[in-house]
């Protein structure tokens, strides 16, 4: 281990109750997430308490180390990646409770902007940052409540991430975004101070009061740009200064830090409002011959008080048909686009009549949709929603060198401009000879575009930046914003200064107020030196020779060969043990894992890793094994690292149940990857005697059968049986 990493590990292990890892294998597991980026951190800390987080940030502040908070690592913009200390809040900080008035200032009075959620104190809950959103909602459902914002990755997304990126989801039209639900947050500032932020007076003599005074001064200084920016453009997430000063003059710091994406501090706990479950829910699928007709149909559907409105294009529908027979039965072959809408009502009769009115308008009156199907049945409704929520992860099952790249997927535009925006975006894609999938929360104008590119191709890497810029120009021209619910991260932070314009100085002053040393998630969101979208791309090209016996399987890149010759070092190679020629090669198998994190789910109705459900650590997740082997193939780790005890510890967290292979959206064969890692360890270190005997039981039994009298003698002996049981 490098001296700096060793020092950090030794320093922190003595002062916190949580885990600290600075070894090359564990840090490599945290070098990537669900994005296309990769940055290996100096160390990983998994705190048990908020006090652990405070100690870590105090240590980082003293030694000038950057800090990067992380939940499930399901972000597609690389917002949790960085070269300093990664703080994994998902491992231990997973408790929640109902808020009680006796808790004091945790839940201040509502400001009246809580949408349809019930903002009364008795329905607020207090959650730690590592609580999984889907698990929270399963518990809340037993009380007739739900947390409204619902990102598509809610089965693994943690509440800290929900608040940090100000997520919304399909039901934004009903529930708004996380910013409207937050009541108070417990936050660790970059200096290591642990503070409770809610609504504060500028006259308070406290850390929160000091921050409130600073925020008020920034807003008063830049009042005109703030007002003009939020009038001229539909705003997504990020550092937002609107609605922070409330009518009574209090500064709502909890709302301010929601959406800050770890750049102002680390949220460790929060008090959030919940809303009642709907009495009756109905879903309609509407099918269109043209994508622009579908966009116009979605805008028209919003007038029927829908609570959700999602749009999918032809490519997504084709993948849905191929992946599930149930989807093939309900999706017309000639549909170029589909819009899914949900309505809610207090009575079944009212719900049915509203669904019928919606169908009649779009199919008969305006003749936008050529077919439709509706349901109020729970199981059928869940199937329709599965169509919307499961298809995008299954994009990664598409074979070929090109894959769907999440780099320009998160923009928001005024809903009425969506048809023209889609047309202009298609023109941009045509100029670059690129195809893309289109998915949209069309009811509120949030658009997700995933172009098909090959990151192993230098030519495709070169067009990432200009393609991203041109699509951003289209969005800005129509009064929209880049960044809606997925965070800016490494993908879109470089666009923030240009997007904010006159408001940029205010955002920089806000960053300076909270984080004067610039140590919190640097290079993201509010940074003058933000990373570009084509920097720190995840390595995909194989850098070592992969051989099977005397046969070369995959050659190293020319750069690796030249480096080895110039330095006089032997060319690195990995003699693989298994046959990988059928179906996917070893390189294709590890590249197929995009790190989406779906294998971290603990939902009772999904089959996934039972080991992760019990342990809950990143190394227990199936994707960790793919990340480990990919790092060896791409040169981030030495092949000899697979012979380390730490590699065996990670591999031993899989016992080959194959649940992950069956449920993985990309069908990655994790058990075979694990077997290869274990075989590499055994090839170097051999087997311990107990494992050797267990793996050769057929040979031992065949030999023992030649001496039955001796075996019978041992079985009859009490002393011999006692020795056998213990050895």
Strand percentage: 15-25%
User: Ends: how far apart?
Assistant: 36 Å
| Global geometry | globular
The unreliable regions are 106-119
Structural category: alpha+beta
Helix content: 25-40%
Q: Return the average pLDDT rounded to an integer.
A: 89
User: What is the count of β-strands?
Assistant: 25
Q: Specify the biggest β-sheet.
A: 9 strands, antiparallel
How large is the count of helical segments? 31
General description of the model:
Strands 14, 15, 16, 17, 18, 19, 20, 21 and 22 form a 9-stranded antiparallel beta sheet that branches. 50% of the residues are buried. The chain is an alpha+beta fold. Mean pLDDT is 89; it is low at 106-119. α15 (418-431) runs antiparallel to α17. The radius of gyration is 27 Å and the shape is globular. Helix content is 39%, strand content 15%. The chain is built from 31 helices and 25 strands.
């Amino acid at each position: 281990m490098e001296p700096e990493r060793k020092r950090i590990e030794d320093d922190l292990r003595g002062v916190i109750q949580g885990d600290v890892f600075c070894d090359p294998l564990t840090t490599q597991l945290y070098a990537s997430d669900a994005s296309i980026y990769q940055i290996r951190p100096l160390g990983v800390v998994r705190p048990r308490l908020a006090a652990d987080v405070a100690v870590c940030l105090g240590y980082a502040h003293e030694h000038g180390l950057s800090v990067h908070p992380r939940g499930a690592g399901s972000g597609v913009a690389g917002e949790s990646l960085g070269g300093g200390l990664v703080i994994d809040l998902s491992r231990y900080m997973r408790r929640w409770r109902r808020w009680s008035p006796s808790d004091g200032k945790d839940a201040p009075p509502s400001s009246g902007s809580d949408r349809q959620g019930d903002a009364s104190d008795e329905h607020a809950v207090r959650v730690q940052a590592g609580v999984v959103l889907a698990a929270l909602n399963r518990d809340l459902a037993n009380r007739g409540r739900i947390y409204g914002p619902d990102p598509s990755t809610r089965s693994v997304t943690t509440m800290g991430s929900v608040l940090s990126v100000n997520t919304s989801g399909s039901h934004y039209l009903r529930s708004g975004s996380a910013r409207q639900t937050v009541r108070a947050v417990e936050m660790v500032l970059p200096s290591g101070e642990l503070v409770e932020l809610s609504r504060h007076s500028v006259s308070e003599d406290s850390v929160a009061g000091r921050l409130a005074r600073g925020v008020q001064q920034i807003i008063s200084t830049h009042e005109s740009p703030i007002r003009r920016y939020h009038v001229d453009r539909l705003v997504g997430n990020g550092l937002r200064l609107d609605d922070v000063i409330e009518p009574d003059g209090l500064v709502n710091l909890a709302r301010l830090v929601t959406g800050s994406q770890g750049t102002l501090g680390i949220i460790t706990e929060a008090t959030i409002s919940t809303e009642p479950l709907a009495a009756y829910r109905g879903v309609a699928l509407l099918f269109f011959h043209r994508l622009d007709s579908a966009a116009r149909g979605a805008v028209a559907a919003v007038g029927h008080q829908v609570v959700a409105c999602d749009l999918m294009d032809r490519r997504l529908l084709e993948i849905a048909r191929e992946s599930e027979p149930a989807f093939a039965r309900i999706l017309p072959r000639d549909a170029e686009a589909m819009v899914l809408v949900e309505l809610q009502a207090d009575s079944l009769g009212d719900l049915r009549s509203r669904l019928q009115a919606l169908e009649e308008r779009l199919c008969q009156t305006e003749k936008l949709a050529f077919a439709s199907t509706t349901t109020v049945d729970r199981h059928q409704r869940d199937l329709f929603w599965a169509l919307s929520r499961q298809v995008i992860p299954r994009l990664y099952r598409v074979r070929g060198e090109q894959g769907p790249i999440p780099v320009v997927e998160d923009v928001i535009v005024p809903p009425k401009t969506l048809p023209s925006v889609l047309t202009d975006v298609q023109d941009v894609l045509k100029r670059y000879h690129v195809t893309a999938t289109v998915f949209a929360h069309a009811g509120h104008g949030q658009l997700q575009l995933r172009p098909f590119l090959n990151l192993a191709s230098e030519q495709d890497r070169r067009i990432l930046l200009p393609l991203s810029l041109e699509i951003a120009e289209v969005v800005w021209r129509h009064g929209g914003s880049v960044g809606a619910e997925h965070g800016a991260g490494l993908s879109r932070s470089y666009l923030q200064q240009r997007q904010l314009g006159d408001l940029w100085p205010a955002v920089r002053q806000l960053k300076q107020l909270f984080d004067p040393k610039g140590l919190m998630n640097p290079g993201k969101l509010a940074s003058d030196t933000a990373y570009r979208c084509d920097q720190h791309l995840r390595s995909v090209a194989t850098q070592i020779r992969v051989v099977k016996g005397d046969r070369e399987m995959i050659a190293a890149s020319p750069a690796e060969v030249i480096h080895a010759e110039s330095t006089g070092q032997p060319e690195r190679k990995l003699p693989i043990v298994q046959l990988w020629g059928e179906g996917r090669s070893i390189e294709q198998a590890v590249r197929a894992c995009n790190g989406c994190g779906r294998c971290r789910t603990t939902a009772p109705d999904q089959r996934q890793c039972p080991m992760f459900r019990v342990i809950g650590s990143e190394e227990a997740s199936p994707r960790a094994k793919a990340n480990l082997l990919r790092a060896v193939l791409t040169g981030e780790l030495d092949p000899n690292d697979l012979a380390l005890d730490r590699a065996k510890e990670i591999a031993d967290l899989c016992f080959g149940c194959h649940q992950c292979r069956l449920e993985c959206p990309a069908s990655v064969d994790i058990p075979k990857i694990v077997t290869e890692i274990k075989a590499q360890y055994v090839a170097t270190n051999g087997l311990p005697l107990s494992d050797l005997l267990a793996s050769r039981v057929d040979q031992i039994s065949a030999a023992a059968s030649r001496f039955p009298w001796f075996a019978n003698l041992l079985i009859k002996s009490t002393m011999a049986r006692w020795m056998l049981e213990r050895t």
